[in-house]
User: Which sequence fits this backbone?
């Protein structure tokens, strides 16, 4: 079914841009080479607006708006790069680093990590909040993969790819607030999961070293994400 | 030009940051003309003097000795630079924090004993309950993450400071590296 | 009034031939102080005095003055007995039709009773919440019948708009505007729209919704049915927390009775309008009071909020347009339809109409449930109705709005209680919790209490709220244990701003409010903890050991 979509014109950082009415601010910005940091967003999965890195200012709206879940509107004036936003984005990263035990130097994903890259990109040279050093588990019960809670940032990409693309819904989140964590099935060891198809999509979309392949040593775990846009495009074409 | 008083300190770290510093190789000769190394694991000086201009600190704060040292150094140096991930984030030494000090000592010296395991306590500094990065305990002026920070970034930082500029190491290094 | 009337002269309160009615409060507050035993003792006394045919004993909802429970009122006699014990039963029964028992009498001329204006609570303490007949006798379902037979859905929305009613859940969004948005919106592909009642009351110290549900559940059902008629919905849900078993039980009874009597279900009052109401129990997550999280929870998903827009009015429960209002909002509706929007709008202030129910608690003589016209001053609430601070202590602040609100100091006691004024002074109307603090309360400790609450109730979805509240709580612990530096205070203030500006939902966006408002009015208390390692109120235990000097 061909939907009728209107073209909207708007300003991003003072530049006139155009996009379809069913596109988000983030999509339109990236189409115009305006970069914005994101962690929970990944092309091909639904957006949840959780990491707050892609927040933008929109003229006439009091609150900051997540650009990944907000559709473009005619005449919108969007600012993606104010000093205030830069400050908040750095603080988001600092809070993440302080939350769990992200020891980059000994991480399988060292050098291939979205969190580590963003820290450099946004200029986080140290974390001003006390590190919390929680005691967290590592689940190596799966034959091929490892879950290291120490490095999880709760972006829920694994939850979404498993549900929306693989259709297994092995992953979900349990617990509240600072105690929240991703789990497989009903908080059973991953290796004993009856729903997991061992497809490995969760591992590939994970932005950090929280999910990795067994046998990879420090800095060896680079992720292959080409499958995701490929699969979504193929499915859209079929529809 | 008058030489500045320069020091380096080694707290709980692997000395890799000092090695990376030495890796600036022949540039050390240029540097020697500009700095006077008054205290460092690399020179033979047992006490940290007063009125130091610039101190690079490697390593996290893990023991009461580390804590005492860094507090006293802070009062005797104009600028303090956290050099490398252990000083900046706690890094590998801080991995013991989530288990608790006693459990870690027991695992190391008692549970895995071959003969007569005992936690050593004579003539050794007492470990703090938690390893902390330097800036959680004293004021730090500049941060140079990296494990270790690359030689050229250390060189860049010292050059900038010697020239009286504020270094901007953000894009040149990162956590882990 | 017939307080001295003889048996012959007295009214017939229940319309059941009995001359007297002893109404025992069986809402949660009085129940927990033993009112059930009092009720049994009164029934026994009536029997043993052979008065079964003249006097009935019935359980009713909240009588308001919870601190003096168990409460018993003598219906139509303007007599309320306080602190009643089972041993007092005989004396009370013997006094019927004669002089009331002086030693147990509440002072009905005291401002606690005379200064209230009851709309939402008009039937509380009068009707038996488990008998629809009682509700009908108190003009119940008159509004629904008027709406269905005399008004178009558009007229109903119009009356609500005219009344100036605003959402009583805290944010104060104009109810008429919300209703008209949903009335205009296109139903989903299967023709559905929904009406939801948010009864997930979770602010510490707040029990307005619980009292309404326990005391007058029919009123909420009637308000929802009217909302369904006005917006074109035929299914309603009440999302009520499982920690309110009595409210749930009475709601279930009320729904059953209303269905049986034709006020709910298919073809209500023989019209073409059909409306069903089902109950959904919350599992104790505060965040499920946020509308998008509540909807997710009803759908059977993990109760976490999602970014708005789209708002539930366009894309709500199962994707259909959904009206969500709070218990108290719906409870206002029958009275507005019965008396007309203008009648309601004649109460309150220019921008905030009607009354508001508050749960008055903390360091105040009369704690309990009160309903006052919006615009009343805080001083009247605390000192007249509340009777002031007991034990000769000095008033310090009123906390309103729970974990999303703030503390209002003495200097603002004469300001009117309305949405705009409260938010201007750094607090909010909120759902209606009002906690009075005196000089023995440490304001940093109060802020820490609410931050701990927000930290443990954060759903964990967005980073600022999940980690930010934990970091702020840690910083407050550092301050209240005398280990913080002024730099820590700066970090705290910076985090407050960041968490407020960047959190996904209202929980995180308002979590810093208790800190910000106490910092605004009681900064010196923070500084005293930090600089002199001293808690001025003597509440916080200071540790001399300095761990971090940051």
Assistant:
């Amino acid at each position: 079914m061909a939907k009728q979509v209107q073209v909207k014109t708007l300003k991003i950082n003072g530049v006139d841009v155009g996009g379809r009415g069913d596109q988000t601010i983030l999509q339109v910005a990236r189409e115009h080479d305006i970069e914005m940091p994101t962690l929970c967003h990944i092309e091909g999965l639904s957006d949840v607006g959780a990491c707050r890195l892609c927040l933008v200012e929109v003229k006439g709206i009091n609150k900051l708006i997540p650009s990944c879940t907000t559709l473009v509107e005619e005449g919108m004036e969007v600012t993606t790069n104010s000093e205030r936003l830069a400050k908040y984005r750095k603080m988001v990263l600092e809070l993440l680093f302080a939350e769990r035990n992200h020891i980059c130097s000994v991480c399988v994903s060292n050098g291939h990590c979205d969190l580590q890259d963003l820290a450099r990109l946004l200029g986080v040279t140290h974390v001003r909040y006390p590190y919390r050093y929680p005691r967290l588990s590592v689940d190596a019960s799966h034959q091929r993969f490892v879950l290291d809670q120490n490095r999880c940032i709760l972006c829920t990409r694994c939850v979404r790819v498993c549900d929306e693309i693989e259709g297994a819904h092995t992953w979900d989140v349990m617990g509240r607030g600072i105690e929240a964590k991703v789990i497989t099935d009903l908080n059973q060891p991953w290796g004993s999961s009856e729903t997991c198809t061992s497809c490995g999509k969760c591992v590939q979309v994970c932005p950090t070293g929280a999910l990795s392949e067994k046998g990879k040593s420090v800095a060896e775990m680079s992720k292959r994400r080409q499958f995701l846009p490929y699969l979504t495009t193929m499915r859209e074409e079929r529809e | 030009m008058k030489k500045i008083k320069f020091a380096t300190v080694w707290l709980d770290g692997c000395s890799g940051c000092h090695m990376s510093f030495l890796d600036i190789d022949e540039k050390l000769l240029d540097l020697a003309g500009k700095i006077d190394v008054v205290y460092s694991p690399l020179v033979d000086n047992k006490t940290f003097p007063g009125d130091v201009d610039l101190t690079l600190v490697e390593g996290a704060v893990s023991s009461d000795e580390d804590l005492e040292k860094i507090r006293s150094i802070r009062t005797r140096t104009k600028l303090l630079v956290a050099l490398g991930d252990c000083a900046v984030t706690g890094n590998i030494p801080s991995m013991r924090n989530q288990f608790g000090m006693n459990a870690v000592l027991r695992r190391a010296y008692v549970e895995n004993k071959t003969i007569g395991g005992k936690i050593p306590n004579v003539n050794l500094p007492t470990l703090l309950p938690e390893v902390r990065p330097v800036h959680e305990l004293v004021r730090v002026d500049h941060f140079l993450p990296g494990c270790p920070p690359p030689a050229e970034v250390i060189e860049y930082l010292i050059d900038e400071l010697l020239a009286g500029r504020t270094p901007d190491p953000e894009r040149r290094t990162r956590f882990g590296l | 009034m017939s307080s001295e009337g003889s048996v012959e002269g007295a009214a017939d309160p229940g319309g059941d031939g009995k001359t007297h009615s002893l109404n025992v409060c069986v809402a949660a507050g009085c129940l927990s102080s033993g009112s059930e035993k009092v009720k049994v003792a009164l029934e026994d006394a009536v029997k043993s005095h052979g008065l079964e045919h003249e006097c009935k004993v019935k359980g009713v909802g909240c009588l308001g003055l919870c601190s003096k429970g168990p409460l018993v009122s003598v219906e139509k006699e303007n007599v309320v007995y306080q602190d009643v014990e089972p041993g007092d039963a005989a004396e009370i029964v013997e006094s019927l039709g004669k002089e009331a028992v002086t030693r147990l009498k509440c002072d009905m001329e005291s401002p606690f009773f005379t200064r209230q204006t009851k709309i939402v609570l008009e039937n509380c303490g009068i009707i038996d919440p488990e008998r629809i007949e009682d509700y009908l006798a108190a003009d119940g379902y008159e509004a629904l019948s008027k709406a269905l037979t005399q008004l178009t859905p558009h007229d109903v929305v119009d009356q609500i708009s005219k009344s100036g009613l605003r959402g009583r859940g805290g944010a104060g969004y104009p109810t008429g505007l919300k209703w008209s948005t949903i009335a205009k919106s296109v139903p989903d592909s299967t023709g559905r729209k929904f009406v939801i009642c948010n009864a997930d009351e979770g602010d510490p110290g707040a029990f307005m919704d619980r009292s309404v549900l326990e005391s007058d559940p029919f009123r909420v059902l009637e308000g929802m049915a009217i909302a369904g008629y006005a917006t074109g919905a035929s299914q309603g849900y009440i999302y009520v927390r499982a920690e309110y078993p009595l409210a749930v039980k009475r709601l279930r009874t009320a729904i059953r009775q209303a269905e049986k009597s034709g006020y709910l279900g298919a073809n209500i009052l023989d019209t073409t309008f059909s409306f069903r109401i089902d109950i959904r129990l919350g599992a104790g997550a505060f965040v499920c009071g946020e509308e998008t999280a509540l909807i997710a929870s009803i759908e059977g998903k993990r109760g976490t909020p999602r970014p708005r827009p789209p708002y539930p009015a366009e894309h709500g429960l199962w994707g259909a347009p959904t009206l969500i209002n709070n218990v108290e909002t719906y409870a206002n509706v029958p009275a507005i339809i019965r008396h007309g929007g203008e009648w309601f709008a004649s109460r309150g202030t220019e921008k905030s109409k009607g009354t508001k129910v508050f749960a008055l608690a903390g360091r105040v003589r009369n704690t309990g449930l009160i309903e006052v016209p919006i615009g009343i001053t805080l001083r009247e609430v605390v000192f007249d109705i509340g009777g002031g601070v007991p034990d000769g202590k000095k008033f310090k602040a009123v906390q309103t709005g729970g974990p999303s609100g703030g503390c209002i100091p003495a200097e603002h006691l004469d300001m009117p209680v309305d949405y705009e004024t409260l938010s201007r002074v750094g607090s909010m109307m909120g759902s209606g919790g009002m906690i009075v603090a005196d000089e023995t309360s440490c304001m940093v400790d109060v802020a820490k209490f609410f931050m701990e609450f927000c930290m443990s109730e954060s759903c964990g979805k967005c980073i600022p709220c999940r980690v930010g509240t934990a970091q702020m709580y840690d910083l407050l612990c550092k301050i209240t244990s005398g280990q913080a530096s002024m730099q820590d205070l700066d970090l705290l203030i910076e985090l407050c701003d960041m968490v407020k500006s960047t959190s996904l939902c209202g929980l995180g966006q308002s979590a810093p409010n208790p800190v910000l408002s106490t910092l605004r009015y009681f900064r010196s208390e923070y500084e005293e903890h930090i600089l002199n390692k001293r808690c001025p109120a003597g509440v916080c235990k200071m540790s001399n050991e300095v761990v971090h000097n940051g």
In short: Residues 93 and 193 of chain C are 52 Å apart (CA to CA). Chain C has four domains: 20-114, 132-345, 355-438, 443-531. Chain C touches chain B at residues 548-550 (CB under 8 Å). The radius of gyration of chain C is 24 Å.
